[in-house]
Specification:
The chain is mainly α. Among the domains are: 144 residues, no CATH class; 183 residues, no CATH class. Helices cover 68% and strands 5% of the residues. A hairpin with a 3-residue loop joins strand 1 and strand 2. It is globular. The N terminus is likely disordered.
């Protein structure tokens, strides 16, 4: 499909129609991709409104827990035999009793919510236009269009415009133009952190990437070519945002903790063993994602590697801890069994007998069941294959490791690196809270490296005849970059394999 694009008139031609030029040069293609990725118009609107609803419900829940609960009565229920009504536990204070800090925060949150609603309207209009564009061009219903894969959709658009300018390579390059810069910065070693929080990721995009771009996802020429004041502007931006993060950190931490607990609780409710299951970290995204690789393609690579990395981590579980967990599990299982038998003989046993302090048997059974499930999941998987096999399989099916890492797969240093990519749910939660709290300090430290960051960006940005300003190491058709940069070579091979092409 993309053979012979290097130096060809097809790639560098400016002789295509205005409409095609608009779709390729503007951020329309980004919105088109996200439209397809998120399942169409209705799905996007429902998802965005759900996010707003979750934000509002979280705000209401935190408000309720902080100001509307009489904890003296709630915690003292076991010390009195008098009946307590819900009205006594829920105590609605007067406006004069609410701290002024909370009222200020409520006003700020109200402004934020208003902006979100305005943005929701813009998203509604934009995606409605995209829906109209696709249904008109493809002459099919939205559900039928969304059932197509992204690759199939591009083929259909390419057939409509009868040009090779619209193809997986050019489209992916346009969509990933900003993310490629951040990937390049991580690959160059500017942000050497063992864990990347969502707050730090958002701030890096806002402070470093956003000023580089103007409308239409095109790089700002003045910044790239005339960098007189850019270093000071970026440094000032980083430090102001760092200070704002520091001031509002208590509120940020409350919301971050509450939202994560809500999500984890849902997972534990569905399956208690999810507490010790592994999940991918943002460190994996910024160190293992390839140049010009779309999010859904990278997620597919992660899914393909999931089982192999899980088995790899299972091999390194501490045998002593496994024995301790097994011992505790056996004891708790016997206690659980006895309590269940007593409950069957007399159901009143559940609520009228106290086991530990003022805790009823019903409460104890719930806790024991959860603990047994979690402990049972902590085990070493029996396998005839060693760590080298699983890392090699992982490299073949998704997440690629270096030859040195595969050779030293049995060493703890390699396993510690793998744990940066792949953490248990509970550890990822703890790390996210800690690294969110220290984000302001990370931003302040990064501000001292802004000259090197700015120099790296300017030195590695070139103007492409078709794609505009892009990172030079993301140009797969340039053989010298593929040969000189291991990241580019690796990205090129991943792209070829994904789109089943021989060369670009």
């Amino acid at each position: 499909m993309l053979e012979g694009l290097r130096g060809s008139s097809v790639l560098y031609s400016q002789n295509f129609d205005k409409e095609e030029f608009f779709y390729l040069k503007s951020d329309f293609i980004n919105h088109l991709y996200h439209y397809h990725k998120n399942g169409g118009f209705i799905s996007i609107i429902v998802k965005y409104l759900s996010e707003i609803f979750f934000s509002v419900s979280s705000f209401i829940s935190i408000t309720f827990l902080c100001f509307f609960v009489n904890y003296d009565i709630l915690l003292g229920l076991s010390k009195t035999d008098d009946p307590i009504t819900m009205d006594e536990i829920v105590d609605i204070p007067s406006i004069h009793d609410i701290p002024i800090v909370y009222l200020i925060f409520s006003i700020i949150y109200g402004v934020y919510l208003f902006i979100k609603l305005i943005k929701a309207f813009d998203i509604f209009v934009l995606n409605y236009k995209i829906k109209g564009f696709l249904t008109e061009k493809l002459n099919e219903k939205e559900a039928e269009i969304c059932s197509l894969s992204w690759k199939e959709l591009l083929v259909r658009l390419q057939q409509i415009y009868k040009t090779k300018n619209i193809n997986p390579y050019t489209i992916a390059s346009r969509i990933q133009i900003s993310e490629n810069i951040l990937l390049g910065l991580f690959n160059a070693g500017f942000f050497r952190y063992n864990y990347i929080s969502s707050l730090l990721e958002w701030n890096l995009v806002f402070c470093i990437l956003s000023p580089l771009f103007k409308k239409g996802m095109n790089l700002n020429n003045n910044i790239i070519l005339h960098s007189t004041n850019i270093n000071e502007k970026l440094r000032k931006r980083l430090r102001i945002v760092s200070f704002i993060n520091f001031i509002f950190m208590p509120i940020i931490l409350i919301f971050a903790t509450f939202s994560r607990i809500a999500k984890i609780s849902q997972k534990i409710y569905q399956k208690p063993s999810n507490l010790v299951t592994y999940k991918w970290t943002r460190y994996c995204k910024w160190h293992k994602k390839a140049y010009n690789e779309l999010d859904n393609d990278f997620n597919q690579r992660q899914r393909n590697s999931l089982v192999h990395l899980e088995h790899y981590n299972y091999l390194f579980r501490n045998s002593f801890l496994i024995g301790v967990c097994l011992f505790i599990e056996h004891i708790l299982s016997h206690v659980f069994c006895i309590l269940i038998i007593f409950s069957v003989l007399n159901p009143a046993f559940l609520f009228h007998v106290y086991f530990i302090g003022d805790r009823t048997i019903f409460w104890i059974i719930g806790i024991l069941g959860t603990c047994i499930t979690v402990l049972r999941n902590y085990k070493k998987v029996e396998s005839d294959n060693g760590p080298h096999y699983y890392l090699e399989e992982c490299s073949h099916h998704g997440i690629v490791f270096t030859e040195s890492q595969q050779r030293n797969a049995h060493k703890r240093s390699t396993q510690r690196y793998v744990n940066r990519l792949f953490l248990p749910e509970v550890l990822d939660f703890l790390y996210s809270i800690v690294y969110t709290a220290i984000t302001p300090f990370h931003l302040w430290i990064i501000s001292y490296d802004i000259e090197a960051i700015s120099y790296f960006i300017r030195n590695n940005i070139i103007k492409h005849p078709l794609l505009g300003y892009v990172m030079k190491y993301t140009l797969f058709e340039e053989i010298e970059y593929r040969n000189s940069q291991s990241k580019t070579k690796e990205s090129y091979e991943i792209f070829k394999k994904k789109y089943e092409i021989e060369t670009i």
